[in-house]
Amino acid sequence: MNISALYQQFITDLQHTSWLEFIAVVAGILSVWFSRRENIWVYPTGLVNTIIYIYLSFKFALLGEASVNFYYTVVSIYGWILWARKDRQERPLLHITASTAREWLQQVGFFGFFYIVVFSALTYLKKDFAPQAIPWADAFASATAYTGMWLMAKKKVESWHWWIATNVASIPLYFVKHAVFTSVYYVILLIMAVSGLMEWRKKSKQRSYAA
Predict the structure, then answer these.
(1) What's the pTM value of the predicted model, to 2 decimals?
(2) Which candidate, 3, 35, 65, places its Cα nearest to that of 152?
């Protein structure tokens, strides 16, 4: 496909963007902005985004992404509870920290487990139920997202590394599914994730110096 054809597909698909997809994208951008600011509103706005994308993922035959958004919904509630906890001075109990070497190994293992599970499931389902699925790409986007969300709930700096990987994988994944507005959304999230990584690194270092 040449540049002209790609551009034409982009314009055509953009014109067919649904209002549900638009709302989900706006809510998702707000959620990432709040997460960068370490603001608990990351979760209510994120829930709007994930619930809509559960439906949209099924619509675009992205079964791995549907599972991711269901997982997001559950972990968002868990994260909301963790972020809301405060001490007697009404200060948050959970703080932004960097992962240890052991925690990094756990993250890689977490990612590997879910990649294998999602890839195997999609490879099986592709035969009869989801012919449009792209198992290796969908599994990668899904597994990195699972890992990023888990770490976000724990306020780990490294969550942004996994979000960056998710966004890079999701940009072409949604484009080829003709969900170009969502593809552009992931470009925006990629830029915000890089910014979020730098901001959380700074906060983590400031806390280390203070301690």
Answers:
(1) 0.83
(2) 35
